[in-house]
Amino acid sequence: MSLDWRSLPSLAALRAFDATARNGDFARAARSLNVTHAAVAQQVRALEKDLGMSLAVREGRSVRLTPLGVELARSLAEGFETIADGIDTLRRREQRRGIRITATPFLVDRIITPRLSEFWDAHPGSEISIHPSREYIDIASEGFDLAIRALPNSTEMTWPGVDVAPLAEMLVVGIVAPKLLEDASANPQDLPWLEHDGMMSKLIMMRDCGLEVEKLTFVPIGSPNLLMEAVRQGLGATLFSEQFTREDLAAGRLVQVPLPKTLYARYLAVTPKGPRHALVEPFVEWVRTLF
């Protein structure tokens, strides 16, 4: 049976009558709906006019339902309770569904995964699926609840149909093995720079900090997972978050490249527009504490 909404009274009038039937008077019905006493009475009278029948009779401060009113109240109660049960079922199912996250491989491997147990301790029973990727994808159609991506400060996020929130800002520095910097006489233009898959953002940052990218010598290494070890082995220089190179710099395994300009980048939390998974906000807040 198809539903003809045009044949039904207004939902506001039906809600007002249902609240009146449940509470027994207009005043308590008004409080339950957070509207005025007069608004409820007006909606009930409008419903009676629309249906062409008497549904409720005022008796002092209370309201007595007519036989037709009792019948309608019973149907509305069943209908609204069915709707409430259906919505509650969907919400509980959504809460049980794990959150799907896509984040940059470095963030997953070096920052999130080593401390993920902390989030689970705070949110026991949470199911989290994390997909390492730096690709710019349609996160809604791919079924992700949250994407975390790194961008140069000079670049704006242009994904359509998403909400974007800042997650963390990073100081980006040039790093290299000490022997290479000595050989290059401290000139970053003379250094070999490591080239790896998916380094478009890094090329933008290299230009932002004043390097002439077209005149640089690049050494291909393929996977960015090999990046830090390749730098330590003296194969070339790269740009990296200063926060996550401090240990190597302090130990003397790496030294900073003197860049022409100070450079910053940022991590962004990207979510599809519309309702969010219940774990998105607490997960984002937790990731912020890791920086």
Automatic annotation (TrEMBL):
<comment type="similarity">
    <text>Belongs to the LysR transcriptional regulatory family.</text>
</comment>
<dbReference type="GO" id="GO:0003700">
    <property type="term" value="F:DNA-binding transcription factor activity"/>
</dbReference>
<dbReference type="GO" id="GO:0043565">
    <property type="term" value="F:sequence-specific DNA binding"/>
</dbReference>
<keyword id="KW-0238">DNA-binding</keyword>
<protein>
    <recommendedName>
        <fullName>HTH lysR-type domain-containing protein</fullName>
    </recommendedName>
</protein>
<feature type="domain" description="HTH lysR-type">
    <location>
        <begin position="9"/>
        <end position="66"/>
    </location>
</feature>
<dbReference type="Pfam" id="PF00126">
    <property type="entry name" value="HTH_1"/>
</dbReference>
<dbReference type="InterPro" id="IPR036390">
    <property type="entry name" value="WH_DNA-bd_sf"/>
</dbReference>
<keyword id="KW-0804">Transcription</keyword>
<keyword id="KW-0805">Transcription regulation</keyword>
<dbReference type="GO" id="GO:0006351">
    <property type="term" value="P:DNA-templated transcription"/>
</dbReference>
<dbReference type="InterPro" id="IPR000847">
    <property type="entry name" value="LysR_HTH_N"/>
</dbReference>
<dbReference type="InterPro" id="IPR036388">
    <property type="entry name" value="WH-like_DNA-bd_sf"/>
</dbReference>
<dbReference type="InterPro" id="IPR005119">
    <property type="entry name" value="LysR_subst-bd"/>
</dbReference>
<dbReference type="Pfam" id="PF03466">
    <property type="entry name" value="LysR_substrate"/>
</dbReference>
<dbReference type="InterPro" id="IPR058163">
    <property type="entry name" value="LysR-type_TF_proteobact-type"/>
</dbReference>
